Amino acid sequence: MNRRRAYEDDGDFYGERNKKRRRVSENQEMEERLETLILRVGENSSSSLESNLEGLVSVLESDLGNFRSKILRILSDCPIKMPEKCTIYSTMVGLMNAKNYNFGGEFVEYMVKTFKDSLKQCQWDAARYALRFLADLVNCHVISTNSLLQLLDSMVDAANEDNVPQVRRDWYVFAVLSTLPWVGRELYEKKESALENLLVRIEVFLNKRTKKHHNALRVWSVDAPHPQEEYLDCLWAQIRKLRQDNWTEKHIPRPYLAFDSVLCEALQHNIPVIHPPPHQDSFEYPMPWVVYRMFDYTDCPPGPILPGAHSIERFLIEEHLHSIIEMHRWERKDCAIHLLLLPYKDKIPLEYCIVEVIFAELFHMPTPRYLEICYGSILIELCKQQPSKMPQVLAQATEILFMRIDSMNTSCFDRFVNWFSYHLSNFQFRWSWDDWDSCLLLENEHPRPKFIQEVLLKCLRFSYHDRFKEMMPEGYAKLIPKPPMPHYKYSMEGAGK
To answer: Of 52, 102, 367, 473, which residue is most buried, by most CB within 10 angstroms?
Structure first.
């Protein structure tokens, strides 16, 4: 009897354990399903984005009881890791707040904690994207305009601190300015005077700011034909242009406008008072840079017009392209595909924007963000993905760089040589060398013939000498490197002494 009872008890034990295991696996499957639905919202679908958002909000609301913390974490991570979908997730949170005010309050607290933690951990991009998302929640009637303005003012206060590095102050102003395109219109309509006061404080800061680093970060020593603006000065000019246009732009998708009748009735939450963490010697801040310009609208063929250098659309496009490169740089094919699938690609000369941004990364001073070969491999993949347009745009960019090489920074000169030789090696070393015949009249040490000489020297490592003798026009013979010959010191004259 005792054995039988023990056996029955063991059977109950294993039965309960199997039930728990099934329950855990079911919960995991449900969590993975929710995460997939949230991550993929806004991607290619047969139904409209609005209907997708409504359906997903209904699913999330029904699952809040069991997966509340999971939903909070995913919804706060997505706009930081996928900033291009910021307005989609703010719309989702807005719809959920309209149905469940308590959840909206919990999410705002969670997002504020994420923002503060990012500042403490020096995750500056994550902090900037979190600030942008909080600002966009104002458009969805989740957060009040007064509390957002209070947060922006506290960040400008941090920019005016004494005895802290300038890069810290610069970042706080940059974070505020880069957030205004998303929420500027809403603040302009409801709190115009407070917005103007904020802009006046920023202008005072920019006028006092020193820019000793500017000359060291320039790609060219002259400003013709495109001035090389310091990044905060350029963004400030773009924000002023946006203010002149009454804070209206044409690049940010705003799906919450379709739900305005629902969102406007929702109760709003206030952001608690946030004091940026004080500076510590261990903190590392983003370094300044110079905005790289290669093309303007006259360089592009008939069709979509390239936005002006001081239009906010130019800033938004470039920021989106930089973030794609950062996210997909490990896989060149995925990176090229995502670059070519940029939203609103039919409204801009996309190929010119992509090439300009990639060369901006390559020529970034003092060093590029990633390995030089990373950018070369992405450009090669772009040519393969779009052979009808990209090679022509890249050839035009190479021509522009060669014509301006006289005033190019020495470090950028070397990177240009490395990229061009690597690119030629992947396209059978084909190039219209006859177009550069004018450089043959110059001294060999002039930047233009020197560039060709250095390129051929690098290309020699990818091929053999006779090929270049046959490939290059006769006039370029003096620029072709000498044939590599073995150097055996024991056969030389006087080796036996």
So the answer is: 52
Q: What is the CATH number of the domain that holds 379?
A: 1.25.40.180
Domain total in the chain: 1
Please indicate, yes or no, if residue 331 is contained in any of the structural domains.
Answer: yes
d(CA 335, CA 397): 20
Q: Which class for 51: exposed (0-12), middle (13-18), buried (19 or more C-beta within 10 A)?
A: exposed
CB burial of residue 18 (10 Å; 0-12, 13-18, 19+): exposed
Cβ neighbours of residue 56 under 8 Å, at least 6 residues apart? 37, 38, 41, 92
CA distance 430 to 427: 6
Is 61 in contact with 97 (CB distance < 8 Å)? no
Assess contact for 372 and 222: CB atoms under 8 A. no
Percent of the chain that is helix, strand, coil (3-state, to 5): 70, 0, 30
Q: What is the pTM of this model?
A: 0.89
Rounded-to-integer distance, Cα 133 and Cα 136, Å: 5
Total number of residues shown for the chain: 497
Contacts of 232 (CB under 8 A, 6+ apart): 170, 173, 174, 177, 206, 209, 288
397: in domain: yes
Instruction: Tell me, yes or no, whether 350 lies in a domain.
Output: yes
Inside any domain, residue 492: no
Q: Range of 381's domain?
A: 304-402
